[in-house]
Amino acid sequence: MNFLKEYKKNIFENNLESGNLIFLFGIFFLPSALPIGIILLLISIFFSFTTNKENLLKNKYNLAFFICLIIIVVSTIINSFPNPLDELLGSQNSILWLNLFNWIPIYFAFLGFQIYLKSERQRLLFQKFLISGTIPVIASCFMHKFLNIYGPFKTLFSTVVWFNYEYVLGMDIPNITGGGVSGLFNNPNYTGMWLTLCLPFSLSLLRSEKINKNKLFLLILNIFFVYFVLVTNSRNAFLGLLIIFLLTFGIRKFIYFTFFIIFGFFIFNLLMPNLLNIDGFHLFNKLSNIDLNLNSPRINIWVKAISLIAQKPIFGWGAGSLPYVNMFLPPFQNYQHTHNMIIELAANFGIPLATLVFLLIIRILQKSIEKLNSLKKSYQKNFSYKPFIISFVIFLISHLNDITYYDGKISILFSVLLASLIQIIGQENEVVSIQH
To answer: What is the DSSP string of 53-69?
Structure first.
């Protein structure tokens, strides 16, 4: 019997080790080669479920999100069969089921990734693979901004695409909104969101690195992170940058950093105007021209969406249905979502689902911050907990006025962040040293 237990233990450990390695390489390929990343992550989820399936729903948060998943499926069934939306969607009724792929796989990814984010060492390795995998994003932005190399570039039977769209500064062109650098993403807002979600981890690695050669490389890399966040011309990305500096360095250092960045940009503009091109730096115009008028497109879309929610408050209209609803005809036909995640969830799946998800997310964030504050100043606090929480906060705040979740890379990264916070909440108050 002891031999059998030992054999099962070895099988478990081997599967877990293999799954963890595949998970890390999946994270590495996620931003630059999405299909390869997804395949590797699916394999890692399979290993996770085969080794940890009996514990998955023992966690109360996992169970609560499973209830959310049931509500989503019930909403889709109700909107497809007993109360079909043919009068609104016509032949597009199948869109309700197709758009479930934006939600259901992310739940299973969230469950499967947890076992690979349990320890401080695992989370540190995740950070290193994530930042290494983001270097191609930085490279594509460099090609875009400085070398004028435009795509799209396709490989592996067009399954891997680096978009690198040519942009026209100040013009709103489809997929090139605002004239910002997009790099390998198909939209500057997605690029800005990815970089700001990754920057807390890059800064964490910079602060934890003790080898001077690596530290210099990470310093240069972080400078590129900040620069390309700015030249995406994304307001959400700029807001995320401010949040990162504030939460990472504190108020005093945040003021110093803000002054340094502003002063540095003006100096660069005087010495090397062609490098930063601040005269045409569209982000400044976008920040100074935020439309708070009640008739602005963003507020109008929220008002229209809320009126739709009032018509079907319990189960909503179904996943991805809003662009096809009559009330979203001109001038709203180009809007693919409501630009607010809470409103989006309520419109798609009903107020009960949106309320439950909102309360769960806030509770998880609250418990994570409590765990962080309960620890004394330590290696673990600064480099194993804090960047995950900061990145998660950026995701939540940015989704109050835009939804980049629908990009597969960003939604998968969100599932990783959520899974990591679940593990942080459940971790004992022990400071474990991390070996580099």
So the answer is: GGGTTTSHHHHHHHHHH
Distance CA 247, CA 229 (A): 17
Pull the structure tokens for residue 228.
């390309």
Q: What 3-state class would DSSP assign to 162?
A: strand
Q: What is the DSSP string of 325-392?
A: SGGG-TTSTT--S-S-HHHHHHHHH-HHHHHHHHHHHHHHHHHHHHHHHHSPS-HHIIIIIHHHHHHH
Instruction: Quickly count: other Cβ atoms within 10 Å of residue 182's Cβ.
Output: 30
State how far the Cα of 184 lies from the Cα of 205, in Å rounded to an integer: 24
Calpha distance 21→346 (Å, rounded):
38
pLDDT tens profile 204-241: 998 876 666 788 899 899 989 998 998 888 889 989 99
Q: What is the pTM of this model?
A: 0.88
Sequence-distant (≥ 6) Cβ neighbours of residue 128 within 8 angstroms = 205
* Tens-digit pLDDT profile for residues 103-133: 999 999 999 999 999 998 999 999 999 999 9
Q: How far is CA 51 from the centre of its chain?
A: 27
Is 344 within 8 Å of 321 (Cβ atoms)?
no
In angstroms, what CA-CA distances link 46 with 307, 354, 385?
Answer: 42, 29, 26
CA 19 to chain centre: 22
| CB neighbour list of residue 64: distance below 8 Å, 6 or more residues apart | 356, 360
| Helices 188-208 and 235-271: angle between axes, nearest 10 degrees | 80
Q: Which residues contact 367 (CB under 8 A, 6 or more apart)?
A: 425
